[in-house]
Amino acid sequence: MSAPTTAFVLGGGGVLGAVEVGMLGALLDAGVVPDLVLGTSVGALNGALLAQDPDPAVVARLTGLWREAATTRDVYGDGPLATVRRAVATGTHLYSADPLTRRLREELGDVRLEDLPVRLEVCASSIERAAEHWFTTGPVVDAVIASAAVPGLLPPARVDGEHYLDGGITNSIPLGRAVAQGATRVFVLQVGRIDRPLSVPRRPWEVARVSFEIARRHRFHRELEEARASERAVEVHVLPAAGTSERDDRLLSHRDFSDVEDRITATRAAAAAYLDDAGVRP
């Protein structure tokens, strides 16, 4: 019997994406290495480094990047006055994508998707086509920046004459893509929101958040049911996230990197316990 094709699905979730590093640590500790990595938004960032360096050492590398984000505030580091000025000047976003782009180029250089040791596919949302788009070739950094272009926070990313926004708009947790690409064993690295109770929104920004969560969860749960009912008997593991809560839905939570290392550590332990209980082997 041939070995299963193993896919890691890394979903979106902004600063909560730190927990995916803990999940990766648990998986690699258990000897589970992906044949395919699918990433959306912050999951594309984490997934790119994994696909470039599918070794347990990548966990320390990723942890260092998240620690750096907490101390340097490079991603959303502008002060209130600078963000207001940019919002007025552009009419579309609060922050520049330049700091994140520079940092990713320092880490990934000019490597292309087709040259990575592990196959990586990155999801973004095309503005012109109003469609989900999968980057499977081309520069990794361009794909990640397109996938992570959070509406209102970062500007739309332009790649080959087309404009893109955050992949989470069209496919936040791309489980169905993994199954469609032939995976028979899928590990879903999600940030802890999919089972969190939703309440009726009471503020303008809560309306957008709740609406997005309904769409995200509806698609994910439908694809999860389809995967488990598939004739190919796809094995799906949804890894647990630790250390996330309702407070992460605050208006300015996207700037709060203060406890990312605690979340990584807690989630690594929770994911390791899950894998042990599930009897997961390499």
In brief:
This protein is of the alpha/beta class and 282 residues long. It has helices at residues 18-29, 42-52, 57-72, 80-90, 98-108, 140-147, 168-171, 175-180, 204-228, 260-278, and strands spanning 6-10, 36-40, 119-126, 131-135, 157-159, 162-165, 185-189, 235-239. The radius of gyration is 18 Å and the shape is globular.
Structural write-up:
With 282 residues, the chain is α/β, with parallel strands linked by helices. Helix content is 44%, strand content 14%. It has 10 helices and 8 strands. It has helices at residues 18-29, 42-52, 57-72, 80-90, 98-108, 140-147, 168-171, 175-180, 204-228, 260-278, and strands at 6-10, 36-40, 119-126, 131-135, 157-159, 162-165, 185-189, 235-239. Strands 1, 2, 3, 4, 5, 6, 7 and 8 form an 8-stranded mixed sheet that branches. Helix 9 links the parallel strand 7 (185-189) and strand 8 (235-239). Helix 1 (18-29) runs antiparallel to helix 3 and helix 1 (18-29) packs parallel to helix 10 (260-278). The radius of gyration is 18 Å and the shape is globular. The mean pLDDT is 89.
